[in-house]
Give the backbone structure.
Amino acid sequence: MSVTENQQTGGRGGWLKPVILITVVIVLLVLARTLGLGEKLGELKNWIQGLGPAGPVVFY
């Protein structure tokens, strides 16, 4: 995009993309905390470890 095209669009592309990215990251973090993803990942880890040597094979 040339300088004149950027001026015609008002320069939105410069700040809009980072704002959208930050918003998406915040929403994902809130969803992960709300859904208890950390606890579920811990339970998954314990389940895999409980399978013994076959755990990594079953996981993949």
Remarks:
- DSSP finds four helices and no strands in the chain.
- The first helix runs from residue 3 to 8.
